[in-house]
Design goal:
alpha+beta, three-stranded antiparallel beta sheet, 16% strand
Length: 154
């Protein structure tokens, strides 16, 4: 389960509404945006926001209808790192949210698999003998030092 202080994306209407209402946010859209190809710019209007003039408050059912038509997701944060309630939110396409979530998941699982593969490589390297190197290299005519594996401290 992701940390509550990290941003995560949601599409569930009940979760979105719960998150917004806990912060006093209201469903809204930017005025005069519905005439261009029917696309409405949606917002969750927080009480402390100064953009109220440009916004038109709408009902939740209309907001969610447009939310689904546009294939949106809400990236949001439950709490700040210090434990206080966060008001961070951003509406993005579901494609963007899915790509972001995939990167986040692979980064977390990648760290574990990277350290595991490094350990496996180290164990293999430690069990091998140093490679045989000719006393002189043909191209340079210099004496080569025997190759040994050295591990750097992490």
């Amino acid at each position: 389960m992701p940390s509550k202080s990290k941003a995560s994306s949601i599409t569930d209407h009940d979760e979105i509404r719960r998150w917004a209402e806990e912060r006093g946010a209201q469903p809204a859209c930017v005025r005069n945006t519905g005439s261009r190809n029917g696309v409405v710019i949606l917002r969750l209007e927080l009480p402390s926001s100064s953009s109220k003039q440009a916004l038109e408050m709408i009902e939740w059912n209309e907001w969610f209808e447009k939310f689904e038509e546009q294939g949106l997701a809400l990236i949001h944060q439950e709490t700040l790192a210090n434990g206080k309630k966060s008001n961070f939110s951003k509406l993005v396409s579901r494609e963007t949210a899915n790509a972001r979530d995939s990167r986040s998941r692979s980064a977390h699982s990648g760290k574990a698999s990277t350290s595991k593969s490094k350990s496996a490589k180290s164990a293999k390297s430690a069990s091998r003998k140093p490679a045989e190197v000719p006393a002189k290299t043909a191209a340079k005519g210099r004496t080569a030092k025997p190759h040994t594996h050295t591990r750097k401290a992490a």
